[in-house]
Design a protein that fits this description.
InterPro entries: Nucleotide-diphossugar_trans. By secondary structure, the protein is α/β, with parallel strands linked by helices. The chain is built from 13 helices and 14 strands. The protein has one domain. Strands 1, 2, 3, 4, 5, 6, 8, 11, 12 and 13 form a ten-stranded mixed sheet that branches. Helix 1 packs across helix 11, helix 2 runs antiparallel to helix 12 and helix 9 packs across helix 12. The longest helix has 21 residues.
Amino acid sequence: MMSEPSIVCFTVMKNEGPFIIEWVAYQRLIGVNKVIVLSNDSDDGTDDILNRLDDLGYVRHLPNPSMMSTRFIRKQKHPHIVGFNYATLTREWKEADYVLMCDVDEFPVIKVGDGSLHALLKKTEFPDVISMNTALYGVGGNVTYKDELITKNFNFRTPHRPGEKKSGSEVKSLTRNDPDMFRVANHRPMVLEENDKPIRWVDGAGNDFSHEFLKSHEKRADFRGRDSLAVVNHYSLRSVESFLVKSERGDAVMANRDIDHRYFNTRNRNHDENKDIHRMLPQLEALIAELKTDAQLAGFHDASVVKHQAKIEKLKSSSLYENLCRIVGVRVEGGQGN
């Protein structure tokens, strides 16, 4: 295996405009060579930002075929599944040594070397799969949306040492790009029945997963003792106000999932403060500043912020906003919040 294998990251997006530059810059910092993004039906400038990042060489941006399949075939297709199947046909995917499945609200935190995926691969001796546990981050008191870094301002998460009953969390995986061994999927690859090659599959501490895990479709793993080398920060809520926009947008993987106050309540985890990702902030802020020297990209970002704020103001009249504020203990002006 080469010392620095090429890595491609895949995701789908809809109405994520204000958060794209930070996330793409972070992926570049941790060693992702190219991000493949398939977008659909955005109205907040997401496509403009992604197109410009494509022009600059950071992203391969394509329309998600799920729009066409829904429109013309009249059969609901999950954007993530359709987009993923299409992305595997691209040159960027085919030429990559490893594939990282990582959404725009997910940030792998590598605790070895220079904080890159390459350092993690070297430390773990280039396994076939690294499945990292995810740590949910709550709003942490961030009610109002601000055009500031998510990685800097959201610092409270699930417990560092969860009890046995709540020790499981979803994983996200960095997978060797070998179609004869695996079928890559959102959380972890599936081993092909016809595969006869030995597989080395480790967790975020470099420990081998059990044979049972490899053969299963399980997307969760016991968090305990698995994050000494790597973990994925999952900012699934962001601020209370930004969550309103997420709720309106819906879910890319589970079409029937309700993104409501119950979803919010189960993911608003603010047990322990953790700032491990802050080691990357100086480099991240520098790269974001460099990207924004491109006047077009900076303008598209600013326009998306304005649209995000306008959508928030519209959605704040909903009962969902009042329910969310009640959950976090904030009084709603003119409402019934506490």
